[in-house]
Fold each of these.
Amino acid sequence: MNVLMISPGFPAEMPLFTRGLAEVGARVYGIGDGPLAGLPERARTSLSGYLRVENLWDEDAVVREVREWVRGHGIERVECLWEPGVVLAARLREALDVPGMRVEQATAFRDKEVMKQVLDRAGVRTPKHRRGRTVEECRAAAEELGYPLIVKPIAGAGSADTYPVRNDSDLEEALELTRHVPEVSVEEFIEGEEYTYDTVCSRGEILFHNVAWYRPKPLVARLNPWISSQAICLRDAEAPEMKAGRALGESVLQALGFETGFTHMEWFRTPSGEAVFGEIGARAPGARLVHAMNYSCDLDLFAGWAEAVCFGSLSQDTTKRYNTGLIFKRAIGEGTIQRYEGLDAILAQHGEHVCNIELVPIGHPRRDWRKVVVGDGWLVVRHPNLETTLEIANKLVADFRIVAG
Ligand SMILES: Nc1ncnc2c1ncn2[C@@H]1O[C@H](COP(=O)(O)OP(=O)(O)OP(=O)(O)O)[C@@H](O)[C@H]1O
Ligand SMILES: [Mg+2]
C-alpha cells in the first residue's frame, strides 16, 4: 500500500499518524514545503520518500509536481489530517485517480456555509446562518436573524476572529475586528454546553467514536486569557444525554457522504437537551484530543486510523475504560516561567490517575495563548468514574498554578 501523506511533520500529531501508516505496513511518501531534514525524526524515519514543493498552498503547482514525482509508484491513498490541506488532498486524489473524497465533498467540510447548506437540505439542525462578504451583507444578516449572533470566518480555526454579538454596537465592533477576514459566517448564537463527536470510519462504517466535553466552550477560553481549559473524553458516550448528539453526528456523516478516515465534529447541547450542529472537519482533532482518546481506551488511534484507511478495519480493542480529562494550562503573569505551585500536593493525592504531564520548563518563556491551544503545558487525568475525573481535572485547573514573571 503506497500512501501519499500531505504535511507529515506538522501540526504536532502528524508525525504520529505518519508513523502509524508505516507501522501498519504502508510505504509513506510525504509532501511538504519545508526541508526533509527539518521534519521531526518520527516523521522522517517513517517515510519512504519526500517531495519538497515550493509552496504547499499553490494547489495547481503542487498537483503538477506531485503527478510527475509519483509516476510509476502506484499511489493508492492520499491523506491529509491538517485542516488547510483537506481540499488539496482531494484534488490530488482526483488528479492521480486514487479512491477517497473528491473536491466537491471536501469543500463541504471546509466551507462552513456550504457545509450547513448541505446539512440543511438533509434536515440536520444547524444554527441559522448567512454568508457575509461585505459589511452590508453582515448587517442585513443580523437584521434578518436577530441577536444574539456569532460572527466567524468561513474557513476558520482555533476560534480565531470569532465574536459573540449581542447588539448593534457588538456587531459594528465585530465587523471592524474581522475586516481582514475575506468572508464570514453570521450565525444564530446557540446557548448550551459544547461537545465533540469524533470518529474513525471506513467505507461509511463508524469503527470508533468519541464524545468529548469542552469545559468551557472554546470561544470562552479564547476570549478569557486567564482560563485554563479542559476537554473530557467521556467513557460513557452512550449515556442518554449524549444520545441526541450521537444521532446528530451520524446523520451529519451520512449527509456529507463521509466514507473513510478521521472526523471531528463539534456540537451544542442546549439547556432543553436539543443537539445543534457546530462544525465538522474531515480530519482528526488537534490539541492532543487523539492522545486523550488513546488514554481512554489504552489503544493507539494513530495506527488505528492508518489501519482503517489502508485496510478498512480497526482491529484494536476499542472498549472505553476511562473518562479522560485533558487540561491545558495557561501561566499567570508575563515573561519567563518562574515556578509551579500546588502540583505536588495534587499528585501526592491523585498521582496514580495523572498519566501525562508536559509543561513549559522553568526558565523558558511562556507561550502566546492566542497561538497555542495547549498553552504552557498539558496534563491528562483518567479515571473510570466521571465525577472523580472532573474533581481531579478541576484541581489541576484551579489549585495548580504556573507562575511567570
Ligand atoms: N453558532 C454558535 N453559537 C454559539 N457558539 C458558537 C457558535 N459558533 C461558534 N461558536 C463558538 O466559537 C467557537 C469557534 O467556532 P468554530 O468551531 O465554528 O470555529 P473554528 O475556529 O474552526 O474552531 P476550532 O477552534 O475548532 O478550530 C466554537 O467552538 C464555539 O465555542
Ligand atoms: Mg471549532
Amino acid sequence: MSKLAPTDVHQRIKDKPTDFGLKVVMMGDGAVGKTSLVLRYTQNTFSPEYKQSLGASFAVQDLDIQRQHVKLVIWDIAGQPSFQQVRRHYYSGAHGALLVFDVTKPETFMTLHNWFNDFRRVVPRGEIVLVGNKVDIEENRIVPQEAAHMLQRWWNLPYFETSAATATGVQDAFLLLANNALLQAQKQTNE
Ligand SMILES: Nc1nc2c(ncn2[C@@H]2O[C@H](COP(=O)(O)OP(=O)(O)O)[C@@H](O)[C@H]2O)c(=O)[nH]1
Ligand SMILES: [Mg+2]
C-alpha cells in the first residue's frame, strides 16, 4: 500500500467541493489556434509545431469566481467539416463556447456564422465569446478590427484579440467566458 505524502494530505484538505461544473467548447476552423489557446490558458505553454487534432480532447481548469468553486471543462473539438455530426453531439450540455478565427486568414472569419448557427441550434442560450487569434503576427493581419467589431455588435458577443504565442488576451477571454457561463448555469438551476 502506498503512503500518502504530506503534500497530498494538504492538497486533500485544501480541495473544496465543486459548486459548479461548466462545460465550454472550442469552435472555429482548423489551424486557427484552438488547441494552442487551451494549452496557453491551462498550462501556459505554446508550441509552434502544427499537430492536427483528431476527434476531441478536454482540459480542466479549477476557478474561484463569484465566490463559487468552479470546474471549467474545456472541450477541444476537431475542426474537420466531415465531423459535423460529431460536433453537434459535443455541443449538447455546453454552457458556452469560445468562437475562434485567425486574423491572418479571412476564410476563417467568413465561416464564423456556420459555427455560430450550429452551436446556437443545439444550445440556444449558450454563452459565446468571439476571439480573433494570432494578433502577434501583425504584419500578416488581413481581418481588420472593424470587421470583428461589426460581427460583435451584430451578434451581441464579447470580442477579444488574442495570441496563444504571446498570451495576449487569453486569460481575459477564458475568464469572461467562464463568468458568463456560470451566470447562465446559475439561471438554469434557479428555474
Ligand atoms: N503566431 C502564432 N501562431 C499560432 C497562434 N496560435 C496558434 N498558432 C499556430 O497555428 C497552428 C495551428 O494551431 P492549433 O492550436 O493546432 O490550431 P487548431 O487546429 O485550431 O487547434 C500551430 O502551428 C500553432 O503553433 C498564435 O497566437 N500566434
Ligand atoms: Mg486543435
